[in-house]
Amino acid sequence: MSWTLVPWVWRIHTPLHIGAGSAGNLQITRTWIPGRAVWGAVVNRIVHGTEKHPSRSHFDEWGGRIKSDYRWGPLWPARMENGDLCMLESSEQDRWRLIDSRASTSLRPDGNAEEGSLHETEILLSQLREGGGLYFVGWYATRGQNWDAEHLPELQFGGDRSRIGGWAAQEQYNSSWENTLKGAFQHVHLTSDEDSCCLELDEGLLRFPVIYDEKSREQVEGSVSLDVGRLTLHESRHGASVHVGSQLFQPGSRLKKKSVFTWDWDGTLTIKG
Fold first, then answer.
1. Beta carbons of 250 and 222 less than 8 angstroms apart
2. Could you report the per-residue pLDDT of 207-254, keeping only the tens digit for each?
3. Taking the C-alpha atoms of 243, 249, 251 and 252 in order, what is their torsion angle to the nearest 10 degrees?
4. What is the pTM of this model?
5. In degrees rounded to 5, what are phi and psi of residue 77?
6. Are 51 and 40 in contact (CB under 8 A)?
7. pLDDT tens track for 7-63
8. What are phi and psi of 249, to 5 degrees?
9. Treating both helix axes as pointing N-terminal to C-terminal, what angle do 35-50 and 56-69 enclose, rounded to 10 degrees?
10. Is 218 helix (H, G, I), strand (E, B) or coil?
């Protein structure tokens, strides 16, 4: 079955935190949502919408099915201006529009505050400082049932489901936004491959993380870091496990020439040989 590339747009309704490490007692947020976090939000929504008593086995089953038939790209912030989407970039001005912070504490498994854990957490605002809502835009690919319009009217993104929330509603897609999304994501399109989902990108600013290897070192220049994040392996222990993955060229790196990539379920790309 062939893959189909689908654009989508989300309107954020409650502030959210997308963990990017810490500096002292400040918990830093990303300004973009990784594909792995999108996958987690989708699986969580489907399981709670289809299973009367969700269990670990349900999450494992649905997680595997979604990994097989979908590829999730990162979501990037945007604002709406007179009905047009305008991308928000990583400049200091745009970070000021997007980010605030609040004091919080770590919670023990029993729900009580952990002693000595007072810290400050950055959050992405649902309402930009200069007015208007915060949107996230991106692409996913599917070769299975299309869940986005009928089954996913809303998702909950982010790392603090109990307080910060991260609730988002999917916007009805407007074809006039196509050029903005295509341009922001390097005129992305799928290429034919019998065994895997492959993506072609023009040279320029990368909005996908790329696996760091011999081929990517020749074609990508930018910041490299280890893919580390938190996983939820038990319903009552959100984010209690740590995931350590591959070294990645981070989004914001630059692709030197048009290239074809293999697109993995978690939004990471690997340059094809």
1. yes
2. 999 999 999 999 999 999 887 665 555 555 555 555 566 899 999 999
3. 150
4. 0.86
5. -75, 150
6. no
7. 999 999 998 888 877 777 788 888 999 999 999 899 888 888 787 888 888 888 888
8. -70, 125
9. 130
10. helix
